[in-house]
Every structure is written in structure tokens, then in C-alpha cells.
Write a structure and sequence with these properties.
Number of helices of chain A: 13
Strand content of chain A: under 5%
CATH class of chain B: Mainly Alpha
Oligomer: heterodimer
Radius of gyration of chain B: 23 Å
Helix content of chain B: over 70%
Largest sheet of chain A: none
CATH architecture of the largest domain in chain A: Orthogonal Bundle
Structural class of chain B: mainly alpha
Largest sheet of chain B: 2 strands, antiparallel
Distance between the termini of chain B: 15 Å
Order of helices and strands of chain A: HHHHEHHHHHHHHH
Number of helices of chain B: 13
CATH superfamily of the largest domain in chain A: MetI-like
Order of helices and strands of chain B: EHEEHHHHHHHHHHHH
Helix content of chain A: over 70%
Number of domains of chain B: 1
Radius of gyration of chain A: 22 Å
CATH topology of chain B: MetI-like fold
Strand order of the largest sheet of chain B: 2-3
Distance between the termini of chain A: 39 Å
CATH architecture of chain B: Orthogonal Bundle
Number of strands of chain B: 3
Chain lengths: ~270, ~290
């Protein structure tokens, strides 16, 4: 009975969660004048012209490509840097470990507005303005600490006896890490990859500041329609729907890592 | 088993330190540098010492924004964390339903923040928005552009809608990391559902919940794009949070020194509270871990 109540509440929650997204989808299939003229729970005259515009206009679709490139770069860099660091934090004591761990987190705590100008100057000085790698690196500022933190939590959940046993069995560190340890924390890796992807994907201020044309992200392309005279709601909604798709694919691919859970005792 | 001391661990940390320090240190020093100067142009600046900091500390509108910010973040934590944990507990554990639930949960998190605000503008419009139209057709007058109370309700709804899934995903991942053996042991001991939650699930979720609470605190305290787009800080100043006021100062009045001093104090407030949360969450209830 209790199980049943929980399930019902969950379904209600998902319905509420989907309402704003349904509204976005609804608007994306209507023309702007249709949206503004009347309320329509179910759109009557469907059109795909908003989507057609995004897929045919390079200034639109290149925004998606740019975002996907720098977000993927950022996720890869964040994970590769964070995995060994998280292992070190979870397994060893060393000089300044606690301070360093908290210092990493402090990088998420600064209000970005005033930092944008020095960021622009720094990346201009090293000649990276308007490149994908610039945005990927800038986003490491908040994603790498998060990745270290989440992974450290999952790694600390793995008993240290497993490491010791593996070393006694003759594993060297790289092979132990890749073949024994990593599979044990794949839930954590999946969650981390998703969060890095997500935070980098939705960030606007750094991405907009560090790019002009070549690497302009989709979120910045969308602000252009907002500031234009007479907002095109249909186009904006279609672009919004499309911003969800890549991340939804990512979580679909990592879902098994998140869902399979822990397989202790595999060693 | 105790952690071993090993100074070579620094070599494993090094990539992270390099990658983060590259973007962290120089901009921070630059902002500190701005904060003690009055800047008129690239080569025209005067050292003013702590003047900007004093101006910030005596700014009444800033104090009001700070109070609003605390209220907002407190509401966010009080609503989203318990709600997120409850939803995570109700999530299915097996089968295709898990996959679909995870994807559904992720949807609000994946929309760029400025777009979230824009979507909610039209979603809450009384004439053509689903939420606004529904509420008004129930006979309740609701308009977030006119009433500060409605503006807060709308912002909180948007915020809870947007960010609760983050808490759910973290809590769910934490729950999935609990080995089945723990539940079997609890069943043998005849533990009630509450006991299982209190003595197995909650302690095992400590790590992920620490992350969730700190992330929600930091991000809600620094929130900018969503309320800026949705309400613009209004009506009046009723939803002018710290970041919105900061940008008004930095861009509107072009007082770089003033805004820099503000940023540093802002940063220190977030730092202080995050540290308190971090310490508290790392020690609270450790006596329960048998």
C-alpha cells in the first residue's frame, strides 16, 4: 500500500515537472502570431518551420555544434584530471590535503559578474579568445572541483581492503585502477560525467565572454533573439527544446552506470 | 582502515591544481586589485584603499538585497533537500522505469539558465501561459509583474522545478551505492522502514547530501540569470538579489572598483557559510555510524 502511494506521488511529480517543458514543446510547434493570439492547451495548427529555421540557418545550428564541442572537451578534461586526484584524496593523507580540497570548492563561490573582465584579459593574453578550448578550460574552474568532490565520495565508499588485496595479488596501480577500481565506482563516474556536461552546457556568462563568432555557444545565440525587437517565442521555444536533446542523450547513455549500482565483492 | 600518509599523492593532485589555478588565481588577484582603486580609464586610476569596502558595508540597498538573498537560499534548502530525498526514495529501483525517470529528471537541468527565465515568463503569463492562465481561470488573480508576493511564488516555483532534480539525482546515486547486504541484514533484524532510512539510508547518503546542500546553497546564493530574465529584480526591488544588484552596480554605474569590493565581500559571505555547512555536515551525527 505504501509502495503504491509513493509511486502515485512520483507520477504526480513527473507530471508537474513536465508541464513547463510541455509548454515549451507546445510553443515550438506554433507560429509566433499563433502563440500570441490565443491560449491553446493543445495546438491546432502545427508547424515545423521553427525547427526548419534552426536546422538550415548556420548561425543557429553552429551554436549547437560549438556548445557540444566545448562541453565534451570540458567533460573529458574534468574527468581525466579529477579521477587520480579524487583517488589521492580518498586514499592518502598528505600535506595540506584538507585545505586543498576546500580551496578547490571555493572556486565555485565567486560571483561571476566582475570576474568576467579579468577572465577576458587573461584568455586574450594567452591567445585563446574565441576558441572552444578557452571555454572548456574556463568551465574547469567550477566542474573540476565538483568532479573531484563527487568522485571522492564514491571512492571513499569502496573499502580500502580492496586496494590492498589487489596489490597483494600483484596488480600494478594503472591496471588496478582501470580494471578493478574504475568498474566499482562507475555509478560515480556516470553521475560526474553528467553533472560536468550539464553545468558546462547551461553556463552562459563565461561562454559568452570568451567567444565572439567561431565558438559562440547556443545559449548566447538564443539571447540574440531575446534582445531583438519583438521576441520570436516559437523560434526560441524550438531552440530551447533542442538544447535539452544532447544532455538527454548523455544521461540515456550513462543511465546504466547510475542504475546498476554497486557490485561489491567482484574482486 | 586508516588512510596512509603518502606525500607522492601530490603528483596525482597536480593536474587538477594546474587546471583550476590557471583560471582561478590571476582573475581573483585582478579583482582584488580593482577593489582598492578608483578606475576612470585603462591608465587613469587612483588608489583609494578601503573606501569601496566601506561604501559596500554602508550600502542600505545592499543590505536589503542580502536579506532577500538569505531568505531565498534558506527557502531553497528547506524545500528542495527534503523533497529531493523523498522523491529519490520513491524512485523505481529496477527496469526500464529507472531509465525513463532519470531522463525525465534531467530535463529541467539541461536548459540554459537564461532560457529557463524566458520560458517561465510565457509559462506564467495570464493570457497565453499554461500556469498563469490556469490559476487565473480558477478565479485567483496572479501576476508576478505586479505583486511582489506573486513574484516570489513564481521564482520559488521555478527554482524548485529547476533544481530539485539535482538533489534527486545525487540522493538516488547515493541510495544505489548501498549494497543489498545492508537491506538483507535489516530485514533479518526486523527493522522498520523508518529504521532503514534513519540508520542505513541517511548515513549512507551523507556524502551526496553534503554535495547537494552545498551546491544548492552556493548556486542559489549566486543566482542571477533566471530571476533577472523573469522579473528583472522587480516589481520594485522585491526580487533584487545580490547578483542582480551587483550587475546593476558594475554595468549600470560602471563603478568597477565598487563592484569589485562588493564581489569580494559577496565571495567571503558564500565562503563563510559554505565552510560552516561543510564542517557541520562532516561532523553531524558521526556518532551514529556504528
Amino acid at each position: 500500500m505504501k509502495f503504491h502511494a509513493g509511486r502515485t506521488a512520483l507520477i504526480c511529480y513527473f507530471v508537474l515537472l513536465l508541464l513547463p517543458i510541455y509548454w515549451m514543446l507546445n510553443m515550438s510547434l506554433r507560429t509566433n502570431s499563433d502563440i500570441l493570439s490565443h491560449f491553446a492547451l493543445i495546438p491546432t495548427s502545427l508547424t515545423l518551420e521553427n525547427y526548419a529555421k534552426i536546422f538550415t540557418d548556420p548561425s543557429w545550428y553552429s551554436g549547437y555544434i560549438n556548445s557540444i564541442i566545448y562541453v565534451s572537451l570540458n567533460t573529458a578534461i574534468s574527468l581525466l584530471a579529477a579521477l587520480p586526484a579524487a583517488y589521492a584524496f580518498s586514499r592518502y593523507r598528505f600535506l595540506g590535503d584538507k585545505h586543498l580540497f576546500f580551496w578547490l570548492l571555493t572556486n565555485r563561490m565567486a560571483p561571476p559578474a566582475v570576474f568576467l573582465l579579468p577572465f577576458f584579459q587573461l584568455y586574450s593574453t594567452v591567445g585563446l579568445i574565441d576558441t572552444h578550448i578557452a571555454v572548456a578550460l574556463a568551465h574547469c574552474l567550477f566542474n573540476v572541483p565538483l568532479a573531484v568532490w563527487i568522485l571522492e565520495g564514491f571512492m571513499s565508499g569502496v573499502p580500502r581492503e580492496i586496494d590492498e588485496t589487489a596489490y597483494l595479488d600483484g596488480y600494478r596501480f594503472p591496471r588496478f585502477f582501470l580494471t578493478v577500481f574504475l568498474p566499482l565506482i562507475r555509478t560515480g563516474v556516470g553521475v560526474t560525467a553528467f553533472f560536468c556536461f550539464m553545468f558546462s552546457w547551461v553556463e552562459l556568462l563565461f561562454a559568452r565572454t570568451l567567444t565572439t563568432t567561431e565558438a559562440k555557444p547556443i545559449a548566447a545565440v538564443m539571447t540574440r533573439t531575446v534582445s531583438a525587437t519583438g521576441l520570436d517565442w516559437g523560434l526560441l521555444a524550438a531552440a530551447g527544446v533542442l538544447t535539452i536533446v544532447p544532455g538527454a542523450l548523455v544521461i540515456w547513455f550513462v543511465r546504466n552506470y547510475m542504475a546498476k549500482g554497486f557490485a561489491l565483492g567482484r574482486v | 582502515m586508516e588512510k596512509r600518509e603518502n606525500q607522492k599523492a601530490w603528483l596525482m593532485i597536480l593536474p587538477v591544481v594546474v587546471v583550476v589555478a590557471f583560471s582561478a588565481i590571476i582573475p581573483l588577484m585582478t579583482v582584488v586589485n580593482y577593489s582598492v582603486q578608483d578606475i576612470f580609464g585603462p591608465n587613469d586610476r587612483v588608489f583609494v584603499g578601503a573606501d569601496w569596502f566601506l561604501a559596500v558595508l554602508n550600502d542600505r540597498r545592499l543590505h536589503e538585497a542580502l536579506l532577500r538573498q538569505f531568505l531565498f537560499s534558506a527557502l531553497v534548502l528547506v524545500i528542495e533537500v527534503p523533497l529531493g530525498v523523498l522523491i529519490a526514495l520513491a524512485m523505481p529501483r529496477k527496469g526500464i522505469a529507472v531509465s525513463f525517470s532519470l531522463v525525465l529528471l534531467a530535463l529541467p537541468l539541461l536548459i540554459p539558465w537564461n532560457v529557463i527565465g524566458t520560458i517561465w515568463i510565457i509559462f506564467t503569463r495570464p493570457d497565453i501561459g499554461l500556469l498563469g492562465h490556469t490559476i487565473n481561470s480558477l478565479g485567483i488573480s496572479f501576476d508576478h509583474t505586479a505583486s511582489p508576493f506573486d513574484a516570489w511564488i513564481t521564482l520559488m516555483l521555478m527554482e524548485v522545478w529547476h533544481w530539485t532534480p539535482l538533489v534527486v539525482l545525487l540522493a538516488y546515486a547515493g541510495l544505489k551505492a548501498i549494497p543489498d547486504a545492508y537491506y538483507q541484514a535489516a530485514r533479518i533484524d526486523g527493522a522498520s522502514a523508518w529504521d532503514v532510512f534513519r540508520y542505513i539510508q541517511l548515513p549512507k547518503m551523507r556524502g551526496v547530501l553534503t554535495i547537494a546542500i552545498l551546491l544548492r546553497f552556493m548556486d542559489s546564493f549566486l543566482i542571477y540569470a533566471e530571476p533577472f530574465v523573469l522579473t528583472g529584480g522587480g516589481p520594485g526591488n522585491s526580487t533584487t538579489f545580490l547578483s542582480i544588484y551587483l550587475v546593476k552596480l558594475a554595468v549600470g554605474q560602471f563603478d568597477l572598483g565598487h563592484a569589485a569590493a562588493f564581489s569580494i565581500i559577496y565571495f567571503l559571505i558564500v565562503l563563510l557559510f559554505s565552510w560552516i555547512f561543510y564542517q557541520a555536515l562532516n561532523t553531524i551525527g558521526t556518532g551514529d555510524r556504528r
